[in-house]
Amino acid sequence: MPEDPDELAVLDEIQQELILQEQLVIEEYERSLQFDEECLNAILDGLDASNKIICPVCRKNHLTVRSHSVFCPCGLDVPAQDMTEEKLRSLLENTITEHSHRCLHNPEFTVTSGMEEEASLLMTCLVCDFWMILL
């Protein structure tokens, strides 16, 4: 065991450097874990959002589906009897697919309502003159 004060100072300095290096490695590991957690949360948020249905009218917000109506913050509010997200997703996908077999252009979606009628979701295409009431 060294007892020379110079040797003890050198050993103490080496020990301090090792402790500092260990702390730096731990900090880097913690930053890496935090980054991994943020990435995982972003992926999970994306998966959760992918189950939502984007409003076909505004193409920005997610639709909210209740058993008797479908609505969006953009103003879309259409009555729909016994509607579920699965039924609505299937209806939109099937109608858009059916249109795409005849026409390469993207259809437009609007909400229409008459004086005494309830609001309806209408899909139209000005290019091929296609229209259909979805809800």
Automatic annotation (TrEMBL):
Transmembrane segments: none annotated. The keyword Metal-binding applies. GO terms for cellular component: PML body. GO terms for biological process: protein import into nucleus. The keyword Secreted does not apply. Keywords: Metal-binding, Zinc, Zinc-finger. Residues 54-132 form the RPA-interacting protein C-terminal domain. Pfam families: RPA_interact_C, RPA_interact_M. Residues 4-43 form the RPA-interacting protein central domain. PANTHER family: RPA-INTERACTING PROTEIN, RPA-INTERACTING PROTEIN RPAIN. This is RPA interacting protein.
